[in-house]
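Archive entry: two folds, one per protein. Generate the first.
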Amino acid sequence: MNAGPHEAQEVPVDVLPPLPKDAAQATPLAQSATHPPPFAGLRTFYHPASGVVILGLDWLAFGTDLLTGLVALPVICVLSFLVSFPLVYAIQVKWSRDTVSTALGKAFLGAFMVGLPFPITGTLLGAAILALAGLPHHPIEMVRKLAAQAGSPGK
C-alpha cells in the first residue's frame, strides 16, 4: 500500500552497539583531545607562546616605525592592546590551562606591555617578558629546546 504525501511512513532505525573503550581511544579525534598542549611540563608565569606574541606584536607595532606622528601613536597603542589581549588570553587558557581570572590578569598585563608607546624588546621589560615566558635569549637555544621536547619519549 502506498502512503500518500500526508501519511507518515515507518522508517526502520538501526542502533549500533556502543564502542569498546579501546576502540574509542584509537580514533584520531580522541588522540587529539588527549594530546598535551605545547610545553605542557614547563611552569612559567607566561606560556612561551604568549611571550612570543607579546614581543612579536610589540616589535611589529613599535620596532618597525611604520607609522609615526601624534595621531598615529595613540591609535597604534590602542590597536596593539586590542590585538594582543585576546591572543594572550586564549593561549593562557588553552595551553597553560590558567583559570579565567588568572588568564585575564596575565592578558591585561601582556597587552599593557604591548601597548606602551615604545618598543620593549630591547629594554628591561623585554628581558622580563623573556624570563617570565621561559624563553631563551638566543634562538639556537630555543630550537634545541623544541627539538628535545619533540624527541622526548612521552610523545
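Generate the second and append.
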Amino acid sequence: MLFQLPCQFIAGAATVDSLPPMTPAPEVAFIGRSNVGKSSLINALVGQKALARTSQNPGATRQLNFFLLAEKLMLVDLPGYGYAKVSKEQLGQWDFLIRSYLSGRANLKRVCLLIDARRGVKPDDEKFMELLDEVAVIFQLVLTKIDTLKAKEVSDLLQSLQKTIKSHPAAHPLAIATSATDKKGLEELQAELEALI
C-alpha cells in the first residue's frame, strides 16, 4: 500500500523562482478555503501526525509545500484562499504563485479541492473551480470534516455536489467525503490518487 510508505518534506516555495524542479513523480495538489483541513488531511492520508503543518489559525500555510511519497507521488499543500487577514500585496503574491504553479506544471495530475462539509460550496470555491477550468487541470471535490455531520447530511451534500461537478468541465465525476479525525473516506481517496501513478 503506497500510503503506508515513507513520505518526506522536499521543499517549500514562496515564489515562482523557488518552485522545485519537476521530478518523474506525478503531483497532486491540495487546495481549499483557509481552515478547511488541508494539512490535517495530508497528514491523515500518509499516517504522519506532523508532516504538514497544522494550526488552529487560518492561513498557516504561506507557501507551496512539497512532500514526496515513496519516491512515487508528490503531494503539494497550497495556501488556503478566502483568508483576509493578510495584506492585499501578500494575497496578490499568493494568487500569482498558485496560478503560475497550476498553469505551468506539466506533471500536475490532479487538484484535490477541499470543501468543508459543515459549510458546503462557497463563492470562493466556485471562483477557484473556474480558475481550474480555465487552466484545464482536473480537480476532484473532497469533503472534509464529515465526522461533524449525520450520515444523511453527508449523503445529501454529495448528491448536491453532482450539480456543481456537471457545471465544471475540469471536474472529476467522483466527489469523496472524508474525515481526518475518524479516517472515513481516506482509503477511497488513497485509491484514487494511487491510480494516478
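Annotation attached to the second fold: The chain has five helices and seven strands. The chain has a mean pLDDT of 92.
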